[in-house]
Design goal:
Elements: H1 2-19, E1 23-26, E2 39-58, H2 68-72, E3 82-104, E4 110-112, E5 118-121, E6 159-160, E7 172-173, H3 182-204, H4 214-236, E8 238-248, H5 254-257, E9 260-268, E10 272-274, E11 281-289, H6 294-303, E12 319-333, E13 338-356, E14 363-366, E15 373-377
Helix pairs in contact: 3-4
Length: about 375
């Protein structure tokens, strides 16, 4: 009887060895023998990238800001120098330093991306049949750069420069400086803005006085728009934008998965980003897990054998993660009320559960963005 049991065990081992030529070890395990060469891959860990674009208005180059509302119906100079222009949320996967695995691939094709995450098993990263070719030519077109000519604009049409003159120091000025009041100059600028708008409308509706082809009309329109923006900046100031990226690492402790809130920054219209101010707008990020995989996690934990570390089948399977759905809410509130709020649904890898591919030869393909298993063939 003992001989039959021994033969049966040897047959099972040989069968497993013939079906699977690879071995997978958690880096936290302690194999009994030294392992030969292999490679490492990690399960994904999701970070949230919150890109906030701030807009700053410079009124130092807006001499007509006091007349903006009267002449153009636009808001002029105010105390709100800074503003939040836009906020975007993007989930990004990186390698989880707690969940690395060592693989002895044998004859199995294994693809790992630059982040150290598993892309495919038994297939190429694009889902095609695995071959010996390791390099895939890129089909992306080369980036083309466009050069734009710049022009020097003199302050006055009756100012003459000669070779050797310095900017602002012309050889001949045939008339005196403009003696009009600030309001008169602002009125003239407002009239020119309206004239440019009329010409642009004529270009759009084919009512321009000359007959030009499409490229010429587009060029004229762009030149008019550039001049219009230059005049408008004298009323509303010059606006510059800067994007700041805040990184949020969702914690996967059991007490925090259901609901956790992280303060991102504090903001005032006068000073922009501030360290701590009582009257500042506090922008926070709330992460709330939906627990849609509750039943699936319970089944994998209690009804599958290969999930236990160290057993025989555990070393014959690739580990992958099934991310959990979470709602990310960004909101800003001050001492009085909540100024804004919006919610986005994302996939959080560390909130999910670890599963195993079937033992033996498999062909599996994973989504590079989320790490989700998208195809499996055995």
């Amino acid at each position: 009887m003992k001989k039959v049991t021994l033969y049966t065990l040897l047959s099972v081992l040989l069968l497993l060895g013939s079906c699977s030529r690879y071995s997978v070890y958690s880096v936290q395990s302690r194999p009994n023998t030294k392992l030969s060469g292999g490679l490492l891959y990690a399960l994904p860990y999701t970070q949230l990238q919150v890109a906030v674009t701030f807009e700053k208005t410079d009124y130092s180059k807006a001499p007509f800001s006091a007349y903006a509302e009267d002449l153009l119906g636009l808001p002029g100079e105010s105390d709100s120098v800074y503003a939040i222009h836009s906020i975007e949320v993007q989930a990004q996967n990186i390698a989880d330093p707690r969940r690395y695995y060592f693989v002895r691939p044998g004859g199995t094709k294994v693809n790992i991306d630059s982040r150290g995450l598993l892309r495919s098993v038994g297939l190429n990263p694009d889902g095609s049949k695995a071959t010996n070719n390791a390099i895939t030519p890129s089909s992306e077109p080369a980036q083309q750069t466009m050069a734009m000519a710049s022009y020097n604009l003199y302050d006055r049409v009756d100012t003459f420069y000669t070779r050797g003159d310095k900017p602002g120091s012309p050889t001949l000025v045939s008339s005196k400086k403009d003696s009009r009041s600030a309001r008169q100059r602002a009125t003239a600028a407002a009239e020119e803005i309206q004239d440019i708008a009329d010409k642009q409308q004529a270009l759009l509706f084919g009512e321009y006085e000359a007959n030009y082809d499409g490229d010429a009309l587009r060029y004229i329109y762009n030149q008019l728009e550039q001049r219009r923006q230059q005049l408008l900046s004298q009323f509303t100031g010059v606006r510059t934008k800067e994007t700041v990226i805040f990184t949020v690492n969702p914690k996967d402790e059991k007490t925090l998965i259901d609901n956790q809130t992280i303060e991102l920054f504090r903001f005032t219209p006068q000073d922009g980003l501030v360290d701590s101010t009582v009257d500042a707008l506090v922008v926070s990020c709330n992460i709330r897990c939906e627990n849609t995989l509750r039943n699936a996690t319970r089944f994998i934990k209690h009804r599958t054998k290969t999930v236990k570390r160290g057993n025989l089948l555990d070393r014959q399977t690739f580990k992958y993660i099934i991310p959990e759905t979470a709602h990310v809410t960004l909101y800003g509130e001050d001492s009085e009320k909540r100024a804004f709020e919006f919610t986005k649904e994302v996939k959080i890898a560390q909130f999910g559960t670890i599963a195993n591919l079937p033992a033996g030869r498999v062909k599996a393909l994973f989504d590079p963005a989320t790490g989700i298993l998208i195809s499996l063939d055995k």
